[in-house]
Amino acid sequence: MATPISLSKHTATTKSRRVLACVLCQQRKIKCDRTFPCVNCVRAGEQCEQATRQRRRRFVERDLLARLRHYESLLHQHNIKFDPLHTPTRDHSSPTQDGPNEIPEGGQSERTVLETNTNLLKEKKTIKPKSLNIWHAMSQKTVASKDDDGNDSENDETDNGFLHDSDDIRHAVIKKAWNHMFQVTHTPTLQTRIIDAASDIANINPTLEALMFSIYCVSILSLTEDQCSALFKSPKKDLLTAYQSACQQALRGCSILRSSDRESLTALYLYLVSIRPDTDPASLSSMLGVAIRIGQRIGIHNESMYGKCSALEAEMRRRLWWSLIIFDNRICEMSDYKTASLAPTWDCRVPLNVSDFELQPGIKIPPAANNKPTEMVFAVVRSELADFVRHSAFHLDFTNPILNTMAPRSPTVDEAERLLALEKTIEEKYLVSCNPENPLHFMTIWTMRAYLAKNRLLQHYSQYSAKSVQQTYLQRKVGISHALRMLECDTNLMTSPLTKGYLWHVHFQFPFPGYIHLLQDLKRRPVEGHTDHAWEVMSNNYEARMMDTKDDERPLFIVFSRIVLQAWGVREQVARQQQTPLVPPRIVSNIRNKLMQMMADFGQDADTVQPGGTSDLNADNLPIPMQMDFNVPGVAYGAGGQVPMSLGAWGYPEMSGLSSMDVDANQFLLNTMEWNILHARGR
432, 444 in Cβ contact below 8 A? Predict the structure, then answer.
C-alpha cells in the first residue's frame, strides 16, 4: 500500500506547484513559457510578474436556480399550487433524491438546469431546433469552467482560435464569440449577458439573439469542412445555410431596418461577412449600403454624436464603423469601386489600441492607447491604413476625384514618400513588437504588408497614368517590386499553419493586381533580369491558392489560364528564335496539365486538339467557354449568360491612361470579376 500512497502525495504536490502564466502574458493573451522572467517579457523589456491564482468565482445564477428547483420539487411533493419559474417539461424529482444538502457543487443540479433549459428551448416555436446548441453551449461552458486562469495549458492549445479534433461545439462557439479578429463585440459584458440569457431563454432579447446567431455564422465560416463534419456531423454548406436562415429570422425579429441599436447593426455586419463567399459582390454591395445607412442614422460615423456615449460605447461604435467601411471598400473593389464609402466625408476616429478588459462600463474617460500589441492590433492597424487611404489622391482619383479638395495633405510632400513614411511608422509602432508565433500577430504582420504593397502599386498607377511618356526602367522596376511583394506576402499567409483559423479572410484578399501587373510586364518584356524570379513567385502563390480546381470553377480557371499562357507564350517564342532550351515554370506546367485533363473529361481528344501535347497548349488555341450553365458569385455576365472578356483594371473600372504604363487592361481580363471565386477554399 506504500506505493499508492506515495504516488498520491507526489501527484498532489505536483498539482499544487503548477506555475501560472505571468500577468503581462495573461493581459496580452499570448502563450507564456512560465519561466520568470519569461521570454515575452524579456523581449518586450517589461518587468515579469508571476500571477497569483484567483479564487474561483461561484456561479450565483446556478446556485439560485438549483435552490429554486429544489423548492419547486418540495412544493410538487406536497401538492401545493404555485407558478413555476419555467413551464415544467419533465419530472424534477432527481435533485431531491440525495437530500437538499447532498447536491454537489456543479453536479446534478447543474445538469438538471441545463437539461431543463434545453427542453424549454425545444418548446419555443420561433427558434429552430438547431438553435438550442448555442444557448446550451454558452451556459454549459461557463458553468463547467474548472479554472479561472485565462492562460491555462488548456487554453494555450487553442490560442490560435482553431479547434482541435477533441473539442466540441461548445468550444467552437466560445472561442469564436470571445476572440473575433475584428473585435466588434465587447467580451466581458457580452459573456455576462449570455449567461443571464441562458437562464431565461423564453424571454431573450431579440437583439442579443440576432447577435449570437451572427457570431455563430461567422464561427462556422471559419471552420474547415473536416471540422464541421467532426463537430456537427454535417457538411459545412448545410450548416451555414441553416444558421444563416436562423440569423435572418433573428434580424427580422429585432426589426433591423428600423432599429437604432448598435448591436443590431453589429449582428447585420457579421451576417453579411458570413454570406460573402457565396454572394455576388454587386448584391452584397447593396446590402452593405443598407448597413452603412443604418450606421449613419445611428450616428456612428460622426464624432460629434459621441458626446452622450460612455467610453465603452464610443469605442464599440468606432470599431463597428471602421469594420463596416473596410468591408464595404473591399466588396466595392469587386463590383463598382466608385460607390465605396471609404472617403473623407466623415470624421469617425480610428479605434484605440486597448484590450477589452481596459474598457469597463460606466467609465467616462477612455484609457490611454497601448504602445504594444493588444487583441485589437489587427483591427487598429488596418483602420489606420484605411484612414490614410481615404484621404489619398491615388484612392480618390479612382473613386471620386472631386473629393480631393476635402482631403487634407501636404502639397510639398510626394504621395509616394508619404506612403513610404506610413509603412515605416506602422512597422516601428506595431509590427516590430508583434510575436510572429502568435496567429493574430502573424496575420497582422503579413496582411498589412500586403495591403501596403497593394496601395503602393495603386499609387504607382495613379502617378504615371496621366503622363504621356513611357516609364523608365527604374520606374517600371518599382511597380514590379510592389506586385512581387503582394504575392510574396499572400503566399506567406496561405502557407503558414498559424493562419489556419483565418483562411476565410485570407481568401477574401486575392492579390489580383499583382498577377496582372507581372503578367502584362512579362508579356511585353519576356526576358529581363527579374523574369525568372517573377515566374517563381507566381508559381509559389499559385500552388498555395489554386492547385485544386472545383467543377464550378472550371470556366473561370480557363480564363485565368489564358492570361498566364499568353504571357508564357511570348517567352517560348523568344526561346525558339534564339534556339535555347526552356523549362516551363510550375504554374504553366500545372495549368497545361489541368487543361488537358479538362479536355479529356469533356470527351475531347487532347492530342487532336493540340498535336504537340501539353507542351504546345497555348492561349491562342485554348477553347474559351462562351456560356455558363450556372451562375457563379462574383461574375458579371453579358447578354445570354455569356462570359465577358474584358475588365476594367481588377475592379477599378476607370483607371484612365493605362496605355502609357504598358498595361493593356482590356486585352485578356474579365469584366468586374471577383477572382476570389477561383480559389475559395473551405466554404
Answer: no
Bond into 37 cis (ω within 30):
yes
**What letters, b where the CB count within 10 A reaches 16 and e where it falls short, cover 397-421?**
bbbbeebeeeeeeeeeeebeebbee
Measured between alpha carbons, how far is residue 418 from residues 387, 392, 406 in Å? 13, 10, 18
CB atoms within 10 A of CB 18: 12
CB atoms within 10 A of CB 144: 13
Q: What is the DSSP string of 61-108?
A: HHHHHHHHHHHHHHHHHTT-----SS---S---GGGTT-TT---TTSH
CA distance 200 to 192: 13
DSSP state of 357: G
The answer for residues whose C-beta is within 8 angstroms of residue 494's C-beta and 6 or more apart is: 503, 506, 541, 544, 545
Type of residue found at 296 = Q
What average pLDDT does the structure give for the chain? 75
State yes or no: pLDDT of 174 exceeds 50.
no
Residue 652 is given by DSSP the state -
CB atoms within 10 A of CB 294: 22
- Which string of b and e fits 28-65 if b means at least 16 CB within 10 Å? bbbbbebeebbebbeebebebeebeeeeeeebebbeeb
- Residue 149 has phi, psi (to 5 degrees) of -70, 110
**In this structure, are residues 608 and 623 in contact, taking their beta carbons and an 8 Å threshold?**
no
Q: State the amino acid at position 667 in one-letter form.
A: Q
Half-sphere exposure of 293 (CA within 13 A, CB side): 9
Q: How many residues does this entry show for the chain?
A: 683
- Which of 541 and 666 is assigned the larger pLDDT? 541
Give the integer Cα–Cα distance in Å for 209 and 215: 10
135-156: per-residue pLDDT in tens? 343 333 333 333 333 333 333 3
Write out the three cell numbers for 60. Answer: 450565483
